[in-house]
Write a structure and sequence with these properties.
Strand content: 15-25%
Radius of gyration: 22 Å
Number of strands: 19
Strand order of the largest sheet: 1-2-6-5-3-4-7
Helix content: 25-40%
Structural class: alpha/beta
Distance between the termini: 23 Å
Shape: globular
Length: about 450
């Protein structure tokens, strides 16, 4: 990771960490880096999206490129549209699951993939003032246009991927007041489902507020109270999906991987007999898949790392507990709406409710805490702390895991503990938090 770009783009509080000047400089970099080419720009529903969109577009045009505005659209639509139209790159303006005061900038190349750490070194230089834009004049100045067909093309793509029709299926949706606020309902109703939805009324400030995949309680209550068959919750930019079964129980990304890996295995389509997960994945997933002859390979946290491993090894499936699920035959990135469609297909194809499909997966007790920190760099460099934490994890033995990591998207440290008993998770988490406090890392 660089100074500005973390595990999922340049993200932070708008007007403070992330400013219009930053966006302008990134736009200038793109206008030059992509050879005065065509760059697609999408955004979620945050009120700051317009500001950053305008600055990015101005930078691209000022250096001779063409900025093509998609408006509000899910992040996974962007790589699809880049490849379909032969565009030179793309930018998504979104802070995903973060609160509305934050926003972010994610960069994609002409292949539709997120830029690598090596490629991000160039915009890092522009942001640091180590490289200056070369502004063009007169007829060389670039253009700005609205790409109104992008939404419809992506919607048609999603509909084409559904193998079943959902007549009689009662579906609850939570669009997080974000990028899926229109599209989720349109897709499921077009496929024949009866839809009850929340999180469909964005006002620029309510994205992820009390709703969405990171605050799943509202959807759980909706599914139970309305007697629905299944629910799907998305995050702010709709690249994540968390499901809810008919009993109102959460079916997270690990459980979705369990269901879909078995489905792919039955069809002979689970290449390499392997699922790619991250170090945050529940240990119960690997234990549940091992007797079925399905292996798990782990990467660092971040869907880009999962995607890289899936692509490099030719695997079919990978994902994160948070709901980023990658079906490599259909998409190179996590796509919440695609995940919901394929899970609904599996429910209809099997004739079983979602709670039955997850029967064989028994997650280990797990505890996750997110705590504000003073400095991620200082935390990473504290050798004495990491020695303490290694000793603490050793107490868990082979049936547990402790993971302490600075977030790549927020100024917090995440403590994740898995163990054979919930009470042990609590004790280990308390001790890790105590050590962080004693070493002066927590705010």
């Amino acid at each position: 990771m660089g100074k500005y770009f973390g595990t999922d783009g340049f993200r932070g509080r708008v007007g403070d960490v992330l400013t219009a000047t930053h966006a302008l400089r990134i736009g200038c970099c793109l206008g030059q880096h992509f050879g005065k080419g065509r760059v697609l720009i999408g955004k979620d529903t945050r009120c700051s999206g317009d500001l950053l969109e305008a600055a990015l577009a101005a930078g691209i045009a000022a250096t001779g490129g063409e900025a093509m505005l998609l408006g509000v659209i899910p992040t996974p639509a962007l790589p699809y549209l880049i490849r379909q139209g032969g565009y030179d790159g793309g930018v998504m303006i979104s802070a995903s699951h973060n609160p509305f005061a934050d926003n972010g900038i994610k960069l994609f190349g002409g292949d539709g993939e997120k830029l690598s750490d090596a490629a991000l070194a160039l915009p890092e230089r522009y942001l640091a003032g180590e490289a200056e834009p070369c502004f063009v004049t007169e007829g060389a100045v670039g253009r700005l246009s609205f790409y109104g067909d992008g939404y419809a093309l992506y919607r048609a793509r999603l509909l084409s991927l559904a193998e079943e029709r959902y007549h009689g299926l009662r579906v609850g949706l939570d669009a997080a007041n974000g990028s899926a606020c229109r599209l989720a309902r349109e897709v499921f109703e077009a496929l024949g489902a009866t839809v009850t939805a929340i999180g469909e009324q964005p006002d620029g400030q309510n994205i992820n507020r009390g709703c969405g995949s990171t605050q799943i309680g509202s959807l759980c209550a909706l599914v139970r109270e309305q007697g629905l068959d299944v629910g799907f919750a998305f995050d702010g930019d709709a690249d994540r999906c968390i499901a809810v079964d008919a009993a109102g129980q959460v079916v997270d990304g690990d459980a979705i991987l369990y269901v879909m890996s078995r489905a792919l295995q039955e069809r002979g389509a689970l290449h390499g007999g392997t699922v790619v997960t991250t170090v945050m994945s529940n240990m119960g997933l690997a234990r549940a898949l091992e007797p079925l002859g399905i292996a798990c390979e782990q990467t660092a946290v971040g869907d880009r790392y999962v995607a890289e491993r899936v692509r490099k090894m030719g695997y079919s499936l990978g994902g994160e507990q948070s709901g980023h699920i990658i079906f490599s035959a259909l998409s190179d990135t996590g796509d919440g709406l695609l995940t919901a469609i394929l899970l609904a297909d599996r429910i209809r194809e099997s004739g079983l409710p979602l709670q039955r499909l997850t029967d064989g997966y028994k997650p280990y007790p797990q505890l996750l805490r997110s705590l504000p920190i003073r400095s991620a760099a200082a935390l990473r460099e504290d050798a004495a702390l990491w020695e303490r934490l290694q000793g603490l994890e050793a107490r868990l033995g082979e049936n547990g895991r402790l993971l302490v990591r600075p977030s790549g998207t927020e100024p917090v440290v995440r403590i994740m503990v898995q163990a054979s008993e919930a009470s042990l998770c609590e004790r280990i988490a308390e001790r890790a938090q105590h050590d962080l406090t004693e070493r002066g890392h927590l705010q």
